[in-house]
Amino acid sequence: MGRIRLLSEAVASQVAAGEVVERPASVVKELVENSLDAGARDIGIAIRRGGISLVRVIDDGCGMDRDDALLSLERHATSKIRSAADLQAVATLGFRGEALPSIASVSRFRLTTREGDAIAGTEIIVNGGKIDVVRDGGEAPGTQVEVRSLFYNLPARRKFLRSENTESRNIEHQIHLQAIGHPEIGFSLMRDDRILFQLPATATLGDRIRDLYGVELLQRLVEVNGVLAPKIQISGFIGQAGLSRQNRSQQLVFVNGRAIESNLITGAVREGYHTALMKGQYPVTFLFLELDPGTVDVNVHPAKREVRFRDPNDVREAVVRCIQQTLERARADWQEKFRAPARAEPTATVFAKTAPDLTLRSEVTTPEATHRELPHLGVIPAVIERTRLEGSEIVGQAPRLPERRSDSAGDAAVPQPQQQGTRPAQQQFEIIGVLSKLYVLMENANGLVLVDQHAAHERVLFEELRRRMEQQGVPTQKLLLPQTFDVPPRDADWIEQNLSVLQRMGIGIESFGPDTFKIDSLPSFLDVSDAAQFMRKVIDDLKSASNNASAMRLGEEMIAKSVCRHAVKANDPLRYPEVEKLIRDLLDCDLPYCCPHGRPTMIQISLAELEKKFGRKV
Ligand SMILES: Nc1ncnc2c1ncn2[C@@H]1O[C@H](COP(=O)(O)OP(=O)(O)OP(=O)(O)O)[C@@H](O)[C@H]1O
Ligand SMILES: [Mg+2]
């Protein structure tokens, strides 16, 4: 007797449901997507007990007549595509005709729906995939779906659900995604009979972000604009340099209106931020990519969470460039804040004042003699020489560090009188003091600015070293003993391909047999004890960052690692002119508001915020 049997429709649906409906949040996702596809303007969601006991989605979309309502519960029944060709360019969120039958097969399900001009609507009740009731219903036009007792007939699946709180949070995240993706649509969420949020339809994404996450977040975002690649348009908002989160919950990416998860895009975002993002932290993005639907395959993931791009490299490059350009533009905006006079009296600039006592309280005043000089880059070779093994030799473009930039000649820290004339409108700020030997307090036209002196100095050193690297190449230093090391064949290929880049970066590396390499020199600003281990790390970092490593990028990576050791630390008391020079140098940087590890260097607290805090303004 044959052993193969066709599964019954009910079992087949449950199997399919296993892929489509993982947890209550997937139910919410599918139902809200259906409402959006139905042209709803307002979508109300209610959940109970983490969506396990109830998910209800009510919309004011087009509704269905009775025949369609019955058909919608059949597998592979959809109004959204007709032929295989349509699958090449899906413009709706749904396209498989899987969601409703899958959900209905693993829950107690009730659908009521009515078309706008119909006299009566339809109500259908399904239990565990079996239609129990079909009758006229009298609800308002639109569609309402209630899903109760999810997985009541699949105890094994139910066991996999997390706590009600976790499931609720997943649902909230799902609705955040949809709400950010569709600001023009009103959303509300009730959790266990309490209203969690009610978002009115808004004209812009910015308004929606403000309504959902608050104005403080919006103020720290930069708008992405501009068409960067002819076939890829990117819009939305990203966090300014220095803003990051401990998880991905605010890293939102949409492709043609669909919220997706994409390692390709998150990798590109990371690369775009590069040193503007703290290691181990996640950026804040509300990124919208628009591409020709024919170049995106949406039919690759059972829950439609991922897509495949026909030209992944184009997409990656566009995102990297977009992030870089947006951050650069944001810098100009920031600098605006330092252009206007810091004080109401137009004459009061920092130059007009005599240096104030930098310490705020008398007990922390440090005697003049113990004030530390702000270390200049000029000290770095000395540091290196001390940390290097005896007998090491400096080769290549020697680390003969150039004269300081002309504007810092002489006593670097004292503001030069001519600066007053040449840059009158720039960098207007007033230093108030230094808090806790670390935070510089200052005033600009916007209000109070706090600067972390260590982070600020790291940024200044980083950009200075990078400039030198660009202009003069990288100073290298011979290792006392050349080291050989083996790598897996794939890494060996990568090294071979990038050999010239690595050499330009001051890494003296050459092939030494199959899958073996020899290093005999490294950039002199690095302090590496195990060259082979260092190389493995560099290869890993760079491979994950980009397909085509550039010398600049590699160099930046290495510099970022090394500057921390040279920068002034917390507790290093600086003299007033040094602090002032540090701030001026910082404001001259390309990315002044975060250190090369992505931590913020400055925090602005606006006068408006202070007024609010002190109850002067409500
Ligand atoms: N809220 C709704 N308002 C109006 N029509 C709806 C609604 N929900 C579902 N439908 C109709 O029912 C059909 C089946 O819905 P279902 O979610 O099962 O499949 P789909 O959306 O076409 O594809 P997918 O499985 O990818 O979601 C839809 O194609 C649509 O015509
Ligand atoms: Mg659907």
Describe the structure.
- The chain has 618 residues and is of the alpha+beta class.
- About 12% of the residues have low confidence.
- The longest helix is centred in the middle third of the chain and has 25 residues.
- The strands form five sheets. The protein has an eight-stranded mixed sheet with strand order 5-4-3-6-2-1-7-8. A five-stranded mixed sheet has the order 9-10-13-11-12, with helices on both faces.
- Strand 1 and strand 2 form a beta hairpin.
- The protein is built from 19 helices and 23 strands.
- The site of adenosine-5'-triphosphate has 22 residues, from helix 2 and helix 4.
- Main sheet characteristics: 8 strands, mixed
> What assembly state would you assign to the polypeptide chains in this entry?
single chain
> Biggest sheet: strands side by side, in what order?
5-4-3-6-2-1-7-8
Structural class: alpha+beta
Bound molecules: adenosine-5'-triphosphate, magnesium ion
Helix proportion: 25-40%
Please tag this protein with its features.
618 residues, eight-stranded mixed β-sheet, 34% helix, binds adenosine-5'-triphosphate, 23 strands, alpha+beta, binds magnesium ion, globular
Topology (SSEs and partners):
Blueprint: H1 9-20, H2 24-37, E1 42-48, E2 54-59, H3 66-71, H4 99-105, E3 108-114, E4 121-127, E5 130-137, E6 142-148, H5 155-159, H6 164-181, E7 186-191, E8 194-199, H7 205-213, H8 215-219, E9 221-224, E10 232-239, E11 251-255, E12 258-259, H9 263-273, E13 285-291, E14 296-297, E15 308-309, H10 312-336, H11 380-387, E16 394-395, H12 417-422, E17 430-435, E18 439-444, E19 447-452, H13 453-472, E20 476-486, H14 489-497, H15 499-504, E21 508-511, E22 516-523, H16 531-545, H17 551-563, H18 576-587, E23 602-606, H19 607-613
Parallel strand pairs: 1-7, 11-13
Antiparallel strand pairs: 1-2, 2-6, 3-4, 3-6, 4-5, 7-8, 9-10, 10-13, 11-12, 14-15, 16-20, 17-18, 18-19, 19-23, 20-22, 21-22
The structure holds adenosine-5'-triphosphate and magnesium ion.
